[in-house]
Write a sequence for this structure.
DNA sequence: AACCTGATGGCAACCCCTTGTCGTCTGTTG
DNA sequence: CAACAGACGACAAGGGGTTGCCATCAGGTT
């Protein structure tokens, strides 16, 4: 027995299909008594409007896609959770897409979804600017962990956060840092590097950079070895996963943390609190990033014409100090 | 400028819309030269078939939904990843749904998605059996981490795994274990409990159970306190998160792991390797669970009539021994 | 009582694509 | 050269719902 349609409801209620349709979509166009009658019949039949038929005409699907650069990165859990929650609150469905650190995959997946979703939330997109602009021409887009003029975005306030990191390290007397850079096409990597560098200049520290590294724990060994070669006394890794991988390698090589070298990460993932020593890291309200991003997206997909405003939101960061940083012994 | 439709392509190519449609959906019904012509025009125009219009008629959406009991549980990351990968390989879209440990939310979300997806993969569903059967009547369903006769499922082989755990603990001379149970309506909790219990009987160990506990690190404190009261020398927690929470609490209370008490978890999440001491846990190929589940689901949604076969797959587990287990000192 | 107004609901076109049916044209066969 | 088979493509009817337009009707006005 197929799902009942608006026709079945109309027949059972003795009204026209249009009346049934209006009872659901613009209730005040229909007499209250008729409406109640229709609702009760619909409930009896177990009628539910078919979202596809609806989307066909309206072009609105009540669905948004969230694309993340690497779904296995715990950092995204919170983002995903915030986004999912916000989407659900508006009865939107969240489609999750994993770009696997590949711009190609990312782009193809997005294009595949264009006809099916109302907009995109892109997390740490690895796509070049022009692609992003093009996609934004097809559907509303909100960037997370990336900024681009004329596109709305939500990021954590990294400039200030990086400054905090450098200050924190400087306070322990460190004079030479090295930044283990993230992927080449990562906006965050560029941003963090320049923020660290200028903070270093301001505070009179030398800041080197090596990389790029894929920000996973498994790439920490290569990163650690490279870092040691620079002679820096403090390592700032592109994210916590990389930092954890680095600390493992350092332990293997009997380099003590923080007595010989300090390590700092980004993201404050769950594991940062569990590893030994605990990882000092720059955290922030990641769930809020996801939430706010979807929030902005839903406004843009809303009935109002896109107002031309492209909010660029920067949420505060906080340096979570644990045991991986300290003075050299 | 709206997306080009089949009509635009037909007009530009000088053929009927049906010809364009068939060129895409049943290519051998159309002359090769005409077909190529249509394809090139379509490419020029940037035409892509509208999946909703297609779904309207065919009822197939090329979308599957994955519902997880709690999206913040790292254990699901691998499941999600495996599922996403498998879905993508068949050009299916994966919709991710978070049930937040609430049967109500889970059910509502599923019902909302019924018209939009081809099937469901349910991870550790908290729904009662009859709900699951009912949902399976509407759309194909594959269960993960739960078994129910007549429904296909993918689980990790826990009976044997639990036996391994008990053997491992027995080999250290433990004679009294306590299982910190997961949520009341969790099939896994029931399964683990009975497997641990029968393994205990077989090997001559006393096995207690306390709980239920929400399997998050934050609930570890209550669980740890309860476990201590039982006087057991080994704690088997419902999952790694709970185990980690327990170990934290034990550290607070100056109970040494493993000298005073041993701790075992389930899932082998990333963090199990990072905490101190490293957590002994029952792992398995979680990504495979997600992959196989989607695989089965796609077969069931495929053109073949559901063959009545409901594969119940059990994948192997492996006990990952770290430092949280040992003999009492 | 004649007239006006606003509320109500029906008709039918449309959203984009698929598909059963049927006509047409090409090439083949006797 | 006529007749025919087969390949191809056009027509039109949905699939489920929305919406502009119009007819109707009840209630209110003068």
């Amino acid at each position: 027995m197929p799902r009942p349609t608006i026709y079945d409801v109309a027949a059972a209620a003795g009204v026209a299909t249009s009346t049934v349709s209006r009872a659901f979509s613009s209730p005040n166009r229909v007499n209250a008594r008729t409406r109640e009658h229709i609702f009760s019949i619909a409930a009896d039949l177990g009628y539910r409007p078919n979202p596809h038929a609806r989307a066909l005409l309206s072009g609105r699907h009540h669905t948004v896609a969230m694309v993340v650069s690497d779904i296995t990165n715990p950092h995204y859990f919170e983002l995903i959770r915030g986004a999912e929650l916000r989407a659900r609150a508006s009865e939107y469905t969240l489609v999750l897409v994993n770009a696997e650190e590949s711009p190609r995959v990312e782009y193809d997946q997005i294009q595949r979804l264009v006809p099916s979703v109302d907009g995109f939330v892109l997390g740490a997109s690895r796509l070049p600017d022009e692609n992003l602009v093009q996609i934004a021409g097809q559907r509303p887009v909100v960037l997370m962990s990336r900024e681009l003029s004329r596109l709305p975005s939500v990021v954590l306030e990294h400039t200030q956060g990086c400054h905090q990191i450098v200050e924190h390290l400087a306070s322990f007397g460190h004079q030479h840092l090295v930044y283990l850079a993230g992927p080449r096409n990562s906006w965050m990597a560029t941003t963090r590097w320049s923020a660290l560098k200028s903070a270093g200049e301001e505070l009179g520290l030398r800041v080197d950079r090596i990389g790029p590294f894929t920000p996973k724990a498994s790439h920490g060994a290569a990163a650690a070895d490279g870092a040691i070669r620079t002679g820096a006394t403090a390592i700032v890794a592109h994210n916590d996963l990389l930092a954890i991988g680095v600390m493992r390698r350092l332990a293997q090589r009997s380099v003590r943390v923080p007595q010989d070298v300090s390590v700092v990460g980004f993201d404050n993932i769950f594991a940062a609190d569990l590893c030994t020593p605990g990882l000092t890291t720059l955290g922030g309200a990641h769930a809020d990033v996801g939430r706010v991003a979807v929030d902005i997206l839903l406004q843009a997909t809303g009935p109002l014409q896109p107002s031309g405003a492209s909010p660029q939101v920067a949420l505060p960061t906080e340096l979570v100090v644990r045991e991986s940083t300290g003075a050299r012994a």
